[in-house]
Amino acid sequence: MAKPSIELTRVTEWVNGQVRAHEDSLAAEEPLEIRIGARSLAVTMRTPGHDEELAAGFLLTEGIIASRTQIAAIQRPDASKGPSCNLVSVELQNCAFDADKLQRNFYATSSCGICGKASIEAVRSRGLRALAGGFVVDPEILCTLPERLRANQQVFGRTGGLHAAALFDVNGELLALREDVGRHNAVDKVVGWALLRDLVPLSEYVLMVSGRGGFEIVQKALGAGIPVVASVSAPSSLAVQLAKELNLTLIGFLRERRFVIYAGQERCVTAPAAELPIVHLPTR
What we know:
- The chain is of the alpha/beta class.
- Helices cover 25% and strands 30% of the residues.
């Protein structure tokens, strides 16, 4: 049986001088070990669920594989063995990599995702190329995405403690949404969902994330060929730099009928940047 993504705990609540005890829902968080064959590759803290997608997406967005055809099998040990359900083993084929280099056994916390290699130089070394142009998304469609994202965050609705990543088509239709305590895990789960259905590269889709548009989100989107990344919060300076360098459209503060384009404005706003008035944005 799969482990639950929600756990219950007894809490004490203080409200305006009144104290009461009740049960509260928590987002589950447990380690997942990803192996290539018998060799341990990484351990990440994640919310249980869609672990095969997480492993597949991780291998793609970290540059270990380039296509679905390189995954020969994804295996889960017998869940009845207890802790073994926190393990996914992937068999690869036609995939050359430096096993010793990959044997980092790094511990990716829920907040960072790419500990120890958060630099554009590391991304350049993977050989990622600039994304092609041509894909355009209507600003009116973009404005509908936050509500559609929120409406489908089932676990967040009970716990208030999860990030979400969602994949939308050019018409704003939701293809897949995944939640996780780690924003990078949520993205890997969505990318893994697409990879296992032979939809990668995702050159005609929009990725929306519930948190900030950080560097790790942008580099994972580039690995999956996603041309537009939108978030409800701010991107980081490194994320913007990478998006500009590799022609990814990066949108922040997408809320209701407003958003800010930090890179790649030609995919959603047709007016040349030189013709747009320059204003100072208010302090957020």
